[in-house]
Amino acid sequence: MGRRGAERGQPDVSGLAEGLLRRGLAAGATDLHFEPTDTGLLVRVRVDGQLLDFETVPAELAPNLVARLKVLGALLTYRMDIPQEGSVRFAAGPGAEAVDLRIAAFPTIRGERVVVRVFGREQDLKGLEALGLTAAQVRMLRQAVAQPAGLIVVTGPAGAGKTTTLYALIRELRDHHPGRCVITLEDPVEQRLDGVTQIQVNPYGELSYGRCLRSLLRQDPQVLLLGEVRDGETAALAVEAALTGHLILTTLHSGGPAETIVRWLEMGVAPYQLVSTLTLVCAQRLVRRLCSECRGRKQSSCGRCLGTGYHGRVAVAQVVRLDESVREEVLRRAPAARLREVLKVQGPGLAQQGARLVSEGVTDAPEVARVLGTEPAIESTG
Ligand SMILES: [Zn+2]
């Protein structure tokens, strides 16, 4: 197809589109943005959470490139006036592992903007040891998933690697605790896992978290992954499932372990229910690792890190268990500040863990400050 275009003296747009996707995937991009500007189509890639300029496609090629991306996502090429979303399973080349791409087009005053989201590759999945947690933290997580029932919560802001940690826990269960039926409810399913039943929920449609969860409990699961708990109905169902002998793994947007406990109570879960179910909270952030090629010298010639000085990310985490002293405070509905004091004795917090990674040369102080800089503000609420 590309050859025919070239014969007519026209640029090979499908080759250009697929080439950009291939190079973006090779750079480790989780998203590719195709942003219409006055001078052309600005292509940017999100790598390790940061958006980087990648290339500018000349304006005369932009409409055809956008059309080609829309064809890939099975979108209507003749509709340029409405937002559209589609997906495709894409292999970067012969023998390359196929990945799921979500392709979304949105009309702007300068033309259509397209964002390609890359969903997880099996090769990107990390085992529990590779997340960057301390040996003691890995041990605490292993003990928690070995329990037949309970509630495990991974918490942090968006982009903190919560899902990666949950997937590592699910793979640990699948590989080391066979014979337990594992079902996930996700929005969206970010990575396909062999040997696990995965269900895509639609929070605002028929397949909402609450409705799915109620029906799923009749499917005899032992372990349920809930992508996120964000309302009282889901929180109540999750706690009820944990109380009736299920192991529930989920995520919550919050600053730290103390805020997580307060949020569950605010969502209407009674303190006595929470202390009988919640086994462990893992609060985390992601910091970028120094590039192993240029050791963070930010050389624009470095192909590994695209000149950023960083390549790959590692978790900074605080893992806490609900031991007797914490349970007492929860039953008394202690405020977040008091809970933080009690939880402190269990191990280092995020700031200490960040300092440890700097001293070990894994990352540098500016990166830790960028990621944890808002920490005092987050912790002062509640
Ligand atoms: Zn580098």
Descriptors:
single chain, 382 residues, alpha/beta, Beta-Lactamase, Rossmann fold, seven-stranded mixed sheet, six-stranded antiparallel sheet, binds zinc ion
Brief overview:
The protein has 14 helices and 13 strands. By secondary structure, it is α/β, with parallel strands linked by helices. The chain binds zinc ion.
Query: Compounds present?
Result: zinc ion
Cα-to-Cα separation, first versus last residue: 60 Å
Count of domain modules: 2
Compute the CA-based radius of gyration: 23 Å
The percentage of residues in β strands lies in: 25-35%
How many strands? 13
What does the largest sheet look like? 7 strands, mixed
**Poorly predicted sequence stretches spanning 5 or more consecutive residues:** 1-7, 375-382
CATH class type of the largest domain: Alpha Beta
Question: Number of DSSP helices?
Answer: 14
CATH topology of the largest domain: Rossmann fold
Strand order within the widest beta sheet = 9-8-10-11-7-12-13
- Mind telling me which CATH architecture of the largest domain this is? 3-Layer(aba) Sandwich
Q: Find the structural class using helix and strand composition.
A: alpha/beta
Whole-number mean pLDDT: 89
Helix-strand pattern: HHEEEHEEEHEHEEHEHEHHEEHHHHH
CATH superfamily of the largest domain: P-loop containing nucleotide triphosphate hydrolases
Question: Share of helix among residues?
Answer: 25-40%
